[in-house]
From TrEMBL:
Pfam families: B3 (PF02362). This is TF-B3 domain-containing protein. It is found in: Nucleus. Residues 2-101 form the TF-B3 domain. The keyword Cytoplasm does not apply. The keyword Transcription applies. Keywords: DNA-binding, Nucleus, Transcription, Transcription regulation. It comes from Rubroshorea leprosula. One of its GO terms (cellular component) is nucleus.
Length: 115
């Protein structure tokens, strides 16, 4: 099982999730400049459909676009929250997503899971 953890930026929260390029080989193979819908399960077993897109230019960073803002809105994600995104072993490939927010609990900073 491959995964990445990412602290969300303004771009991630405002328009699209920029996926780390080292994780690109774990994602569906998409020709640059084309988009493909992919289904992702959250930790509450709800399905989300995101448009996965790889830019065509020199900066071939992969992103999740369509459907992503709805996920951000419904989960009330903010800059600084964390996303955990993983590819589940098997064929066909399956993906899971979870989110965490840093909160103060009994005077200590801890990460709380968001569903």
């Amino acid at each position: 099982m491959a995964r990445f953890v990412k602290e969300l930026t303004r771009t991630d929260v405002g328009s699209m999730l920029v996926i780390p390029t080292h994780f690109m080989n774990q994602m569906p193979q998409v020709e640059g400049g084309r988009s493909e819908n992919m289904t992702v399960m959250d930790v509450g077993e709800s399905e989300w459909t995101f448009g996965y897109y790889v830019r065509q230019n020199v900066n071939r960073r992969p992103v999740l676009r369509s459907g992503w803002r709805r996920y951000v809105r419904e989960k009330e994600l903010k800059v600084g929250d964390r996303i955990i995104f993983e590819r589940v072993d098997g064929f066909p490939a399956r993906y899971r997503i979870g989110a965490r927010r840093r909160i103060t609990l009994l005077g200590r900073k801890v990460w709380a899971d968001l569903f």
